[in-house]
Amino acid sequence: MNISIIGAGYVGLVSGACFAELGNHVICADNDTKKIVNLKKGVLPIYEPGLEELISGNLKNKRLKFTSKIKDAVRSSDVIFIAVGTPSLEKGDADLTGVENVARLIAQNMDGYRLIVEKSTVPVETCARIKKTISTYIKNKYKFDVVSNPEFLREGSAINDFTHPDRIVVGAESQKARQIMRQLYLPLNRQILVTDIKSAELIKHASNAFLATKISFINAVSRICDKVGADVQEVACGMGLDNRIGRYFLHAGIGYGGSCFPKDLDAFITIAENLGYDFKILKAVRDTNQEQKDFVIQKVKEALWIIKDKTIAVLGLAFKPNTDDLRNSPSIDLINALIQEGAKVRVYDPKAMGKARSILKNVTFCKNSYQVARGADCLIVATEWNEFKELDFLKLKNKMQRALVIDGRNIYDPRYLKKMGFTYIGIGHVKE
Ligand code: UDX
Question: Measured in angstroms, how far is the CA atom of residue 409 from the centroid of ligand 1?
């Protein structure tokens, strides 16, 4: 098929590269000309494992192209994906300016039937608005369909999530649209849930909100574990063995972050509010996440007594491993709070140092985990990168002023660290 993807962000780039890999001809459009110039040379704006290879391979075999001219993308494709950003507005609702703009440009440049696929995370009833916008601005009475096809990929494992999704959700009105979508995803050989458009739109927000709820729930349980000396890892394992609960997304830590959960939760709360429903559970989920971040600072204070002038080493800046994404990263919030308290902060992340330099001021950027620990009174693990799991603790201890580890992601065995001479503080993670 001839596909165009409007918006070369995370979702757009991964979807574009994967659809090209499946044998389609894909053209990715973005109005950021600098980004497009770089992408044409195979230079990516983000780090995502495997993506660079996938893009350069498909650029070479000419199944993937990049353009800053949306008109070219609209003209040369049968299926158009909208994958532009939908950032939060002040009140928490999604800014749909980009989506509306793309809908107008599609309408003005269509020269025949088009299937328009909404992939960005948008409030319920957005597809209906896209349809209305296109009908208003279309020049000739060409036929078109709008479908909702939310994307569930996670940063750090995006390619595998795209090619091996648990489910593909398609919300469509016409038989033709359903058929094209089925054909498009046929090579993946995965379960496709075909439903009405509004339900498909809601599935995305409901899923992300539910996953965030699981995380806040286990973080709240970790607080109880801390108080009584139980281990949240054991509790999560015991809960997860029940198939009705499941073992995923029960990892306690310093709170969730990223470009999706915080934004989508705010949006879902606002959507509900606008519809006259007070989504109290989700407000509590959001509050619990904030409390968890504050709680880590509390732990640092308890351990160090006075934070001012202490040297604190932070391992990990990205909001999760295998990405360089710093958006809503709990690590960045933590670092800013430590700086506010007067700490001297040293930081290291395997991939996010470049991006961090432009947003973090007054910290020392280090080359590796041992350099970051030099002279530190305390070392905090804020992101669970694999390389942090395999440190030489003897070497680490010799670099530090004081052998204190605050394990914000519960990646270490408390008994082992104690044996190595460290004071270990986890998140509800206690093993006697
Ligand atoms: C999420 C959804 O998982 C994905 O389906 C959607 O398309 C986009 O939003 P992403 O934000 O890339 O994906 O990462 P995810 O792996 O879901 O993690 C989100 C945050 O939750 C991270 O900060 C992570 O550290 C945290 N998290 C996750 C926990 O604290 N505990 C867990 O058990 C799982």
Answer: 13
